[in-house]
Amino acid sequence: MKFDLLPPRERIVTIMQRIYGYSMTTTSGGNLSVLDDNGDIWITPAGIDKGALTPGDIICVRPDGSIQGPHRPSSEYPFHRAIYAARPDFRAIVHAHPPALIAFSIARQVPNTRIIPQAHLVCGTVGYASYALPGSQTLGRMIAATFEEGVDVVLLENHGVVTGGADLLKAFQRFETLDFCARTLIQARTLGEIRSLTEEEIARSQERGKKLPKFRPTSHSTPELTLRGKICDVVHRAYDQRLMTSTEGTVSARVDEASFLITPFDVDRKYLNIDDIVLIREGRRERRKRPSRAVRLHMTLYRAHPEIGAVITAQCPSATAYSITGCRLDTRTIPESYIVLRDIPLIPYGEQFGQGEALSARLSEKVPVVLLQNDAILTTGRDLPQAFDRLEVAEFSARALIDTAHIGQMVPIGDEALAEIEAKFLS
Ligand SMILES: [Zn+2]
């Protein structure tokens, strides 16, 4: 989807539907705006159901202050205007009160975005604005002054969060990623000490070697075309279940001995299409397309493991909570977890970058899933359904274990029961 070709009203409604649909705002809370080339500010209305907004509900405030539209503009219009004045590089603003970020704002703590490289790259440093009355000029001044320091994300004390960007998708991605960090951090706190990435470690995630040489496919086989649709389905399901964010999560699937398909770099997961998927054949990439930066790792895995037909990496909050604390994700909990996942080792940060040979050597039929320290969970399977099932089971198991800590002590399955499972299902 060419999101930036939609008129401002439709862009705003589309993003508000995403925010409301994924439980990141309430019927009454939150507001979005877009500044267009004329200097008009398009903004959500005050007092209208956020779950049922239509393009006709969006208000336009002209540079002279005149208002066009059937409703009053959002009561937070003063801070939107103040932020645009402070940050000429911003063309869109997102504000809402998702529960995990409210929690941080009440505890008066800024969420740490250095937990995975992508989160820090998307959000940058998070600013903090002290409490002021909602809708007041004072609140507008304080938020704008914080943005003036150069941050793109500001936590509002005892209130929520505001993000800005060069377009609405960028502002939304910052908002969604910060919410992901907050949800992950809350879960991780139950487990133990959180490991933060250094600047050098974050920079390392950006060095992925030279681009693959390109080629022009002359035909597309039926298995390849079928797999393109299946990859999109898996990505959309993972996104809808919040196992991926709009900027993170990679899926690939083997087409034959010499080729595989992989998701592209920098395409919003929600809007992924079959023509975005990149074909890799004999170490070359389909021309005019940019594969995921993890393409070399996936290439190594398919070459070294003929039994692997699909690979997924994703940032699911509960599994990621394990990856940032280094706590052992113990699958000896229920038979399903152990049968589907086996033991899940934690791979030291950095092994997934470059060719990934050391990481590849750790995978086997007995180790189909690994946690990548401060990054993601990586699942493999003979096909996409198996790799995706492993992702879901891993996230469910991680969430169940974290919940267990709130109600009692985790009691693993005993060695004898484990041996029985091994004999019946895994031998
Ligand atoms: Zn608010």
Fold and architecture overview:
With 427 residues, the protein is of the alpha+beta class. It folds into 2 domains: 3-191, L-fuculose-1-phosphate Aldolase (3-Layer(aba) Sandwich); 213-426, Class II aldolase/adducin N-terminal domain (L-fuculose-1-phosphate Aldolase), CATH 3.40.225.10. The protein contains 14 helices and 17 strands. It has helices at residues 8-21, 77-86, 99-107, 117-123, 137-148, 168-191, 199-204, 222-240, 295-304, 317-325, 335-341, 357-362, 384-407, 415-426; strands spanning 31-35, 41-43, 59-61, 67-68, 92-96, 126-129, 153-156, 160-165, 214-215, 250-256, 259-262, 278-281, 284-286, 310-314, 346-347, 369-372, 376-381. Strands 9-13-12-11-10-14-17-16-15 form a 9-stranded mixed beta sheet, sandwiched between helices. An 8-stranded mixed beta sheet has the order 4-3-2-1-5-8-7-6, with helices on both faces. Strand 1 and strand 2 (41-43) form a beta hairpin. The longest helix is centred in the middle third of the chain and has 24 residues, at 168-191. It is globular. The model has no long low-confidence stretch (mean pLDDT 94). Bound molecules: zinc ion.
The largest β sheet comes out as: 9 strands, mixed
Q: Could you please say which CATH topology of the largest domain applies here? A: L-fuculose-1-phosphate Aldolase
> Can you identify the CATH superfamily of the largest domain?
Class II aldolase/adducin N-terminal domain
Arrangement of strands in the largest sheet: 9-13-12-11-10-14-17-16-15
